[in-house]
Amino acid sequence: MTSSRSYTIAVLPGDGIGLEVMPPALRCLEAAAKRFGFNLEFRHFPWASCTYYHEHATMLPKDWKKDLQACDAIFFGAVGDPATVPDHISLWGSLLLFRREFDQYINLRPCRLMPGVTSPLANREGKPIDFITVRENTEGEYSSIGGRIFEGTDRETVIQNTVFTRIGVDRVVRYAFELARSRPAKRLTSATKSNGISITMPYWDERVEAIAKEYPDVKVEKYHIDILCAHFVQRPHTFDVVVGSNLFGDILSDLGPACTGTIGIAPSANLNPTAKRDDPNQEWLPSLFEPVHGSAPDIAGKGIANPVGMIWAGQMMLEHLGEKEAASAMLLAIENVLKEAKNAHDRGESNILTPDMHGNGTTEELGGEIEMEIGR
Amino acid sequence: MTSSRSYTIAVLPGDGIGLEVMPPALRCLEAAAKRFGFNLEFRHFPWASCTYYHEHATMLPKDWKKDLQACDAIFFGAVGDPATVPDHISLWGSLLLFRREFDQYINLRPCRLMPGVTSPLANREGKPIDFITVRENTEGEYSSIGGRIFEGTDRETVIQNTVFTRIGVDRVVRYAFELARSRPAKRLTSATKSNGISITMPYWDERVEAIAKEYPDVKVEKYHIDILCAHFVQRPHTFDVVVGSNLFGDILSDLGPACTGTIGIAPSANLNPTAKRDDPNQEWLPSLFEPVHGSAPDIAGKGIANPVGMIWAGQMMLEHLGEKEAASAMLLAIENVLKEAKNAHDRGESNILTPDMHGNGTTEELGGEIEMEIGR
Ligand SMILES: CC(C)[C@H](C(=O)O)[C@@H](O)C(=O)O
Ligand SMILES: CC(C)[C@H](C(=O)O)[C@@H](O)C(=O)O
């Protein structure tokens, strides 16, 4: 089977376990491409990493933007080595910069109790957990404007602005409503804190209420972030689509996966859903796909990092590129392998799950098994 | 036994279930006072409630400050009726106003897996969970400064300032270090998000690091709020003292109790630990004690609200007033009653736990049992 469907992918493994989970994830993507008849061209870049920074005193080469804009999507491992490079250099010099420069204003993170994964929550097994957080990804609490005054004195005062714009809030809220509408449960939960954060958060609530009028078929509820976090623990199975600001989305999309078992398997899609390639009237702004987990210096180099987050991020990338069939097959393969490994575990046999999932497998073993399953 | 130890308590039941949990809590305090030989004078005030607001178009009478400053402590139920009064009136006109006016800069919230309470976390029972959150309670994300520009247009922009002051940060961090030093584990966890919130949060980290030098005996760790929330679910039994900003402390002190079972039992002490009554050189600024839960309009009027949060808040108040023995006895009484009720439940007998704890008792029954146990 030959095909004209072909995609160029920027591959940025980054640091730490990013370097370890990338190869098996690329092999999984290759397997999907082969089976479903499309081509993937991987362009490997060593930059956007602290290793690169140590050699070049900068996270990115001069032409980074051109390099990435020559690709259909960015496949990103994990960046950061806080022991040697400050976060404001490593993160604001790569991941957070990309999100803003490419206006990846939607951060999507599915949260699902996968077969074979044991949730730390009692009495939840059997009950499906399957929701998705939609995080604003460019403004809000991550504005990076503000400063210090009276430094080093008793009057020292430090201010940072949270910035919500009409355009920024409306587009993420509308995206969340559309997503909720497309799902069977049609339920949207909005994270707020308008009772305490009395200027920006009431504005967020107002925009949610205004846009809700366009979606009478979607059930909307709003919760203050404190009690919403509590409800994630108490009733995770009742959520469908959850929308929040940059900070609240960040918190909820780590807490959700913690409630469903392991953060090692959660993926993250940083989307600019309106950008179009080859449209002469707009600049091409590619989307970025990454695992939720970070570079994890504590386990880097041991070969035991969980590759599922990275593979699942690849699955979201194929979905975004329009390869729906291949994306479905990849998700099914992940589920089948996790289920089978769990069964082996329950039979008292050794299994290929990585240690974070209480198995004794390696990154390569678990990744290789999923690759094989995709090819089947 | 007669005594010269006598305390005047401002009693503000507020709204909703605040009105229901207050009477049993006051009877518990009376029982403790009787047994340990001190006097409590309760001054009941109907204001700081939406009921009062509906009649007077204001949350507080003119002399509210004088009335409260004539007391040794404030015992506060819960305020709010979002269906009829906006939060910025009800909350910023009472609770949040008191915190700021009386400079109650420490918000202490113990989080403990109580005997008889079933945690929603699997495999945690048996392992003790016993930590305490120290929340900055006057500044930070709750600054209430900022505003809107270009209203109603596509350029609409809304800004709110997060304000950290040297004085504000240092005093809460130092308080947390002192508290950690006084506890057997001597461990302090600082909540941050300096990788994303790039101006105020690195400042928070800097102050924690600077003050840590004064406490070489305390083990300090810092975690970004996203992963810290995940760790609350994954390993709540490993925390000791957790310190955070106004917002982060708010989130963690709801999430913690969610992990230990029920938010209905968590108490909250809003402290000005340096204020001294009868010191001619300073204004008297009383501290405030409240349950973590809110006015809960959905279950108000049914008589089934859990009174333990309010009673436990009373326990913290006695501790603060210096009645350590009475405070210990109250905590023990709460534990004994919960344990006994759980045993009854496990024997298949009906029990007096309120419905949020899966029992079939009422506010009055559970509160009455604790009152009797205190008197024993
Ligand atoms: C009611 C609300 C403003 C308040 C807060 O956020 O401080 C509450 O959640 C709390 O934790 O006491
Ligand atoms: C690394 C950090 C800045 C980042 C964020 O807060 O956005 C991460 O936690 C995430 O969720 O992608």
Helix-strand sequence of chain A? EHEHHEHHEEEEHEHEHEHEEHHH
- The percent range for helix content of chain A is 25-40%
* CATH fold assignment of the largest domain in chain A: Isopropylmalate Dehydrogenase
Low-pLDDT runs of chain A: none
User: Number of helical runs of chain A?
Assistant: 12
How would you sum up the major sheet of chain A?
10 strands, mixed
Question: So, the CATH homologous superfamily of the largest domain in chain A?
Answer: Isopropylmalate Dehydrogenase
- What structural class do you assign from the helix and strand content of chain A? alpha/beta
Using the 3D structure, state the CATH architecture of the largest domain in chain A: 3-Layer(aba) Sandwich
The total number of structural domains of chain A is 2
The unique ligands bound to this protein are: 3-isopropylmalic acid
* Inertia-based shape of chain A: globular
* C-alpha-based Rg of chain A, rounded: 21 Å
The count of β-strands of chain A is 12
Multimerization state? homodimer
Distance between the termini of chain A: 16 Å
Cross-sheet strand order for the largest sheet of chain A: 2-1-3-12-11-4-5-10-8-9
Write a compact overview of the structure shown.
With 376 residues, chain A is an alpha/beta fold. Chain A has twelve helices and twelve strands. Chain A is globular, with a radius of gyration of 21 Å.
Provide keyphrases for this structure.
homodimer; 376 residues; alpha/beta; Isopropylmalate Dehydrogenase; ten-stranded mixed β-sheet; two-stranded antiparallel ribbon; 12 helices; globular; binds 3-isopropylmalic acid; ICDH/IPMDH (chains A, B); D-malate dehydrogenase (decarboxylating) (chains A, B); metal-binding (chains A, B); magnesium (chains A, B); TTC_DH (chains A, B)
